[in-house]
Amino acid sequence: MAEFLMKPKIDFAFKEIMMDDRARTGFLAAVLKVRLQDIRETVILNTGLRREHIDDKQGILDVRLLLNNDMEIDIEIQLSKMAVWADRSLFYLAKMFTGQIKPGEPYHVFKKCVGIGILDFILFEDSGSQQPLGSIQGTAATQGLDSLQNGDTQEPDRDSLFYSRFHIREDTRHFIYTDKMEFHLIELPKLPKELLENSSDIERWAKFINAEQKEEFDMLANIDPNIASAYHTLQAISQDKAKRMEYEAREKAIHDYNTGILEAQERGIEIGTERGIERGIEIGTERINKLHAYLIHEKRFDDLERATQDKGFQQQLLSDYGI
Q1: Which of 21, 30, 56, 75 would give a disulfide with 201, using CB separation of 3.0 to 4.6 Å?
Q2: Are strands 163-169 and 112-119 parallel, antiparallel or unpaired?
């Protein structure tokens, strides 16, 4: 029987891997494009975001880190297509940023906030020309972290196929307005099929996160010692019965979510025959998509499963969330 191995892109498994210091450091160095020796310390932080008021939207991050005591990092994995990803990632990073300051404190207490999104869907259909949801792409991939830059200011063309980096820039002269917010995006479906000998660290890490077969894991672990550490952790948690139960529950929740999206699309098509197919799909998908996103990120997995089976309960939740 083949050895059972969790998929690193299931957020439960990824969070466990990020508990390993060497794997965590290697991943951050690859994504931020800095030298390993420049990462002196990484600290795991509480993933819950502070709410100022009782009716504020709750934010729960996948992995939240403090790097070198001067940069906060949010790492998020999203497997199901989410058209509002840019808005959601901005909300979480802004929430993390404003949560650093208390009443009466000076503004210089703010640490840089970096969002890393790992998506199992294509957000930018044409990376060379589209700027969806108001994002400014421009030359966003040409400047690294000011405090940790390794001197390479030109992104490799191969990496730009699946990896993007965004800053807040002036529209025409492209200078940085503030470096306090930065977004990194990995679109897994855009990964090149074959791994080259000179492939970058970030491509190898993206391949590892996207891998499912033991042969892939073995090959990547033999190339990169930091990935080897991540693989060792993956093997250990895959053989842990309690962790496997948690992993399978999370995988089932994601499956139920995707099933709900499919059902929503089917219901949307039915509505579309009466009001227009395009509008029907949009209404059906968006409402259920939003509901499932709320339930998943508030970790209401039991309610998510029930909502896919009990339409009355689903309608009640839609009403409760004002969707």
Answers
A1: 30
A2: unpaired
